[in-house]
Amino acid sequence: MPFLLLLYVVAYLDRINVGFAALQMKTQLHFSDAVYGLGAGIFFAGYFFFQLPSNLILYRVGPRRWIAVMMIAWGIVSSSMMLVATPRGFYALRFLLGATEAGFFPGVILYMKNWFPAGVRARTSAIFLTAGPISGILGGPISGVLLGLDKLHGLAGWQWLFLMEGLPAILLGAIVFFTLADNPREARWMTSEQQHWLAETLRREDAEVEGGAKLGAFAAFGMGAAWLLAFVYFALNFGSYGISLWLPTVFHRASNFGILALGFLTAIPYLLGGVMMILNGLDSDRRNERFWHVAIPAFVAAAGLVGAAYAGSFPVLVACFALAYAGVQCMNGPFWAISSRTLAGAAAPAGIAMINSLGNLGSGLGPYMIGFVSLHTGNFRLPLLLVGAVLAVGGMVVLEVRNLARQGRASG
Length: 412
Description:
Largest sheet: none
Low-confidence stretches: none
CATH class: Mainly Alpha
Number of domains: 1
CATH architecture: Up-down Bundle
Order of helices and strands: HHHHHHHHHHHHHHHHHH
């Protein structure tokens, strides 16, 4: 888990560091909010189109090989962002970054499904997903320092940021190839008894989900619950990336702080989000309850964004964003515990990729809508209310999935 967490920290930082780079590159390259919002969000178009084939390739060739290839590829693309000079170049490299990173997250979710029994998946998913908050905690100060290298050796600060933050993915990709075990049978640190127990436990859980029927590779596409879960994940990402990719800009416009100070201030929502995500995952496992542990945080996040929209002071704005981001992050662990429990056998790779790819359309649409609406209204009030409304609907939809699950158990 610590190694997987490190890999996702690097992946997450490479996708959100454009939010910090925008503090300089928007001015130097004369990009409007709409151009930045589209470029930030178009990452997820590449992510959407290449996710399912990438996850199916991972299922065939094994996590070790394919994760290594993906990391080296996206590290090269991420560092190449330093070459951006026009909006078209910005869009193209962000799309390519999404395409090369597409299979990593759903691949790791599938990978963890082959290692962890259902009873501990909320906490393990939450621990893995703390990569988002951790990358924000570390990324703010690090990005602030790198932006401070402006004009060093003829490069702008934002160019140093992209160059230096893309290199770790290349290095870690090589390490993955030589160290990652594809499954418990290859884990030298487990005894044969432990390997047998784990394999039998996971086999039994998959059999219970399948209900005696052998699910096909694309069975998830015919499951109503899977489509509803895709919308819940859409709402989650609409809020998560809408917040994270615009947070530095919102804070910058609402205060007189310098870039380095803003880097530390943006770490506050990420810090609270990381702590609360783990606590919510632990409580979900302890109570063996998933759905309300997704719905309540969604409603809390919506309330935080409403508060941010009407905040009368900068400290209140920071507090409301921290509450909103914590709510969004708390949804993650229990959500993936629901999703991985809903899908089993051959249906899991395509089903998890489907939920993640459709859900990540929200990751692209959220940042774009915030930029588009703020450009036409002159402020961030309406965009924040829009994001809050989407999250509130997501909370209601996950409760409908709960009703479907209960009906399924009753009919079974």
